[in-house]
Amino acid sequence: MNDSLLITGGTVLTVNETNEVIEVGAVLIEQGRIADVGEAAVLEAKYSNIEKLDAAGHVVLPGLVNLHLHSGLIRGTAEDLPVFEWLTKYVDPKHRALTDELAYAAARLSYTEGLLAGTTCVMDMYRFMHRCADAAEQLGLRATLAPYVVDKPGMDYFESLDKNIRLVEERNRTANGRIQVWFALEHLTYCTEDAYRRAAKLAEKYDTGIHTHGEESIAMARRLHAETGRWPVELFYDRGILGPKTVLAHCVWLQDSEMELLAKTGTSVAHCPVSNLKLASGIAPIKELLDLGVNVGIGTDGVKENNSLDMLEEMKYVPLLQKARLLDATAIPAEVALRMATIDGAKALGLDKEIGSLEIGKKADLIMVDFRKHHLTPIIRGKYNNAVSNLVYSASGSDVSHVFIDGKPIVRERKLLTGDAEAIRLEAQEAAEKLFELREPFIPV
Ligand SMILES: [Zn+2]
Q1: CA atoms within a 13 Å half-sphere pointing along the CA-CB vector of 306
Q2: Domain Aminodeoxyfutalosine deaminase/Imidazolonepropionase-like composite spans what residues (predicted)?
Q3: Does 425 map to a domain?
Q4: What rounded mean pLDDT belongs to the chain?
């Protein structure tokens, strides 16, 4: 059978309900879906005439879900600034200068970086997202597109809800279901009350989700509270956008009442630990959210905030920060961080029935991480099995060897198969130089 492949001999992290680990396991891909999962010896005997991929020395796991990303081209060029100075001095002028072709180059770069590091699914908040849809479609990435909508006066260089509607109508649930389009709003200080209310109605009408930035800065949370008498999540609640199909990024500073609202409404949070550290936002109360039953996924944020789109690196920060904040080494175990980066991210996007774990019937979005490295040695089986710990605390994106999405090979032996990775890099270099040239007149003196 042409569409079948048995990936066999690796340690399989299923991320199923019981976090089952199969020490010498196999996964059968058939017609883009997972047709079987189990012991390698059993599956090899059962499917003896099917093409095999030897995964010995590798860990096989669900593809990583990057729940909050901004494609971008300004990596490493707007550094060490307080968040609002950073936004007004460099980021907003970048938005003024951006064109659809530059956005396309940015999306191609960011998606390629993610794919090579094991990210199979992203939620990207960016501009000119019909071009991001093109990029995701060509590269074979699974993407939820969330355009930066802003409607405060003087900021019409951002996207509008009308353009967001068009994108939903044209691209939602396209590319064999790999592309979704959500309604998205930049931030409480960039969008009017009316924009949130309208987005809530539109998301219901089109049966899609809503993505926006929760609060990063304590100063801004206090300012909003002083102005309105309500904390940011309470404002979202008043404006009707909270619910199981809404994802709030960051949520660093939360009152108890806000955490309860997130739990009550089933709203998900995209935790972006590195961005929160770099922009000096603080450490989000993730342990408390999880204890309340709030669904939390992990995002890298963009290259201007992070400066890397490596979800394996990002995953490590999640338990580390909570342990240090609470002085509790048990605060978040590695297994929980892995769930957040896979199945919980999928759940936030409404995709947990289809992806996020290696279970029969799900779409075959999975990755292989090559553990035959000094920094991933030893591989121990049995009661001291260290596969999950080594993955979360020792692996990085450059250890990812193979990536499959919808059962299709996207990366093989670290080589991108769906595009010319070097050409994408060179195009992005050229696009970034152009963007800096176009942005210069907008930089405030
Ligand atoms: Zn963001």
Answers
A1: 25
A2: 25-47
A3: no
A4: 97
pLDDT digits (tens, 9 = 90+) for 43-55: 999 999 999 999 9
Q: Is the residue at 435 inside a domain?
A: no
% of the chain residues with pLDDT over 70: 100
**CA of 195 relative to ligand 1 center, distance in Å:** 18
Q: Do 410 and 306 belong together in one domain?
A: no
Residue 83 pLDDT level (bands cut at 50, 70, 90): confident
Expressed in angstroms and rounded, the spacing between residue 14 Cα and the centre of ligand 1 is 30
The model's pLDDT over 110-138, given as tens digits with 9 standing for 90+, comes to 999 999 999 999 999 999 999 999 999 99
**Residues 75 and 304: beta-carbon distance below 8 Å:** yes
Ligand 1 centre from 252 Cα, in Å? 12
Q: How far is CA 18 from the centre of its chain?
A: 23
Using CA atoms, how far residue 366 sits from 30, 64, 72, in Å, is 13, 8, 25
Between the CA of 274 and the centroid of ligand 1 the distance, in Å, is: 12
Q: Which of 305, 328, 348 is the last residue of a domain?
A: 348
What number is the average pLDDT over the span 61-72? 98
269 exposure class (CB count in 10 Å sphere: 0-12, 13-18, 19+): buried
**Residues 156, 120 share a domain:** yes
Q: Is the pLDDT of residue 274 over 80?
A: yes
Ligand 1: centre distance to CA 214 (Å): 9
Do 289 and 262 form a contact (C-beta atoms < 8 A)?
Answer: yes
CA 361–ligand 1 middle distance (angstroms): 33
Are 55 and 68 in a shared domain?
A: no
Q: How many domains does the chain have?
A: 2
Average pLDDT estimate for 402-421: 98
Q: What is the CATH number of the domain that holds 331?
A: 3.20.20.140
pLDDT for 1 equals 44
- The CATH number assigned to the domain holding 8 equals 2.30.40.10
Same domain, 44 and 92: no
> Could you read off the pLDDT of 347-373 as tens digits, one per residue?
999 999 999 999 999 999 999 999 999
Last residue of a domain, one of 320, 348, 376: 348
Q: Which residues surround ligand 1, an ion (CB under 5 A)?
A: 301
Q: How far apart are alpha carbons 71 and 156 in whole angstroms?
A: 20
The pLDDT assigned to 82 comes to 85
CA of 42 to the centre of ligand 1 (A): 45
Is 337 in the same domain as 372?
Answer: no
Q: Residues 138, 212: one domain?
A: yes
Domain that holds residue 138: 64-348
**Beta-strand pair 119-124/142-145:** parallel
For residue 68, the CA-to-ligand 1 centroid distance in Å is 6
